[in-house]
Amino acid sequence: MGPSALRSHWRREVVSRHWYIIHTYSGFERKVAESLRGRVKAFNLENEIHNVLVPTEEVVEVRGGKRVISQKMFYPGYVLVEMETTEKGGPSDEAWHLVKNTPRVTGFVGSGQTPTPLSDEEVQQIVYRVSTAADKPKPKLT
Predict the structure, then answer these.
(1) N or C: which end of the chain has fewer CB within 10 A?
(2) What letters, b where the CB count within 10 A reaches 16 and e where it falls short, cover 83-106?
């Protein structure tokens, strides 16, 4: 999902959906996102798990005298997942187990067995950061 699609999606957000953060093995964020998307389709949970996002930005670095554009993670070791929220205030047990049992996922961010959803302000900040990062690659700072 591109930045403009993400912004328009945010505006028409349904009240029963929330974004959650899952912790993954560092360096495996993209593989976890791909695996999770595949598992959602395989288990027919598209109506409960809507989006999987790995926020990145393009950075420019010089390697061997050449400019190279690469992707830098905003939140290494974390993936964002948009899920339906049940009456009990979290994702359904089926969706929770699907995410939790995805290879290289260590768990949800939250207390104990209850994942904590991101606030609307936090989601807006992430969407803004992703959309502004898509405008122009930044120099890599080491």
Answers:
(1) C
(2) bbbeeeebbbeebbebbeebebbe
Domain at 36, CATH number: 3.30.70.940
Domain count, the chain: 1
Domain of residue 38, residue span: 3-139
**With 80 as the cut, is the pLDDT of residue 77 above it?**
yes
* Tokens linked to 133: 């990062």
d(CA 142, CA 134): 20
- Residues 139 and 137: their CA atoms lie apart, in Å, by 7
Reduced to 3 DSSP states, what percent helix, strand and coil does the chain have, rounded to the nearest 5?
A: 30, 30, 35
Q: What is the pTM assigned to this prediction?
A: 0.79
Q: What is the structure's pLDDT at 112?
A: 73
